[in-house]
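Researcher: Next entry in the queue.
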Amino acid sequence: MSFEEKVVLITGAAGEIGRATARKFMNSKAKLALVDVNKSALEEVVRELKLEEDQVLTIAADCSKEEDVVNYTQEVVRYFGQIDVFFNNAGIEGKVGPITDLDIEVLDQVYQVNIRGVFLGLKHVLRVMKEQGSGVVINTASIAGKFGSTGLAAYTASKHAVIGLTKTAALESADFGIRVNAICPSPIHTRMMRSIEDGVAPGKGEFVKEKLIQSIPMKRYGEVDEVANLVYFLASDEASYITGNHYAIDGGMSATSL
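Model: Structure for this entry, 258 residues:
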């Protein structure tokens, strides 16, 4: 499962899951194109991973803006000549609260990043991969894309949409030697989960966390490295006959839902 000389493009690369996934591919000698809206955070990732200049390209971009997506796609091709793996990972949680209390701006904001951003990434990166005749895409959905999630209407709807986009992209890309899948993490130890916990019950995040843990058969949150391992497998030739599906990494939560 070596990725030597392969080019891996990661959006949301400065977040915990993006960073862990970059480390996983780095250890397999991949070349990395790291995209995030936060340029200084990207530079921190490069320092943390001790990446060499010829091994990494960092691009500050807003994935909800088509001109930024066109730019990061073209920059990667100019710098490395190809895109072999695309981890379409950038996303936000939005404000927590019941539908009746949410301003429409919350839905619009989450839509812009989680749906529009994923769509634009697929649109422009798949063009490169189709011309190459090869490539792998992994979109970040969520178990919230498989079930309902109280207080997270915008996020839940967006992740359902990511799964739909994944299936459509897989069908449209199979003839070109491209595979497209999605991952569906449950609660993972990240900043996003801390934000959701506090949003559910302000000032009582630890209580919310313990309640969530009790709903997970394995009785713990997942770790970012465990998510990175799933992305790595789906990107590898070991998963060569897997496309058009979404894979839970959830400590058994999906097994408990009707």
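Model: The chain has a mean pLDDT of 94.
Researcher: Noted, moving on.
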